Amino acid sequence: MTDEDVITPPTRTVTFRGEMLVVGPLRLQQVGPFITASRTIIARVAMMAGAVEAAEPAAIGAIMLDLLEQDGPEIAAALAVAVDREPDWIAAGTLDEVADLLEAVVGLNRDFFARRLQRLLLMAKPPAAESTA
User: Fold this and answer.
1) 57, part of any domain
2) Separation between Cα atoms, residue 124 and residue 20, nearest integer Å
3) 18: left (phi > 0), else alpha (psi -120 to 50), else beta?
4) Distance set, CA 46 to CA 68, 78, 112 (Å)
5) How many domains are there within the chain?
6) Cα-flanking dihedrals φ and ψ of residue 54, to 5°?
7) Distance between CA atoms of 54 and 44, rounded to whole angstroms?
8) Are 25 and 108 in contact (CB under 8 A)?
9) Residue 130: what pLDDT?
10) Residue 39 belongs to what domain range?
11) List of residues 6+ apart from 26 with CB closer than 8 A
């Protein structure tokens, strides 16, 4: 294998609490803990995503504040898994820093969870039996 054969995953650099964090796609060893940490917010985020599309900016702000109030510890725990830090360290970040980090983590992993995982699951589905009628 040559250097040209190596695929470098995309990354984003985010300034968080005065440090530069290089955020990459989740690794296999992170997926379980990430899902465990974010399980309670996954359905709420999916529900809120539909509401945000037609909402006024003030309503979007209220939705986001509700999410941060109700699910702040889970958000911190999930982000901590994604960047190999402690949840308390993430929780001490400013709202802007948390939003930037959240945007980076979601942006780098959205395609896998929204598209690629679905394709993999469909490929694993057994083919339908052919009708002999």
Assistant:
1) yes
2) 40
3) left
4) 15, 16, 16
5) 1
6) -105, 5
7) 17
8) yes
9) 64
10) 9-109
11) 34, 82, 105, 108, 109, 112
3-state secondary structure of 21: strand
Taking the chain (133 residues) in consecutive chunks of 10 residues, what is each chunk's mean pLDDT? 71 98 96 93 79 79 85 96 98 95 93 81 76 59
Q: At 120, list the tokens.
A: 């993999």
Element (H, E) at 61: helix 57-83
The single residue listed with the structure tokens 């040209």 is 4
Domain membership flag for residue 74: yes
3-state SS of 72-131? HHHHHHHHHHHHCCCHHHHHCCCHHHHHHHHHHHHHHHHHHHHHHHHHHHHHHCCCCCCC
Provide the residue type at 47 as one letter. Answer: M
Per-residue pLDDT tens digits for 85-111: 999 999 999 999 999 999 999 999 988
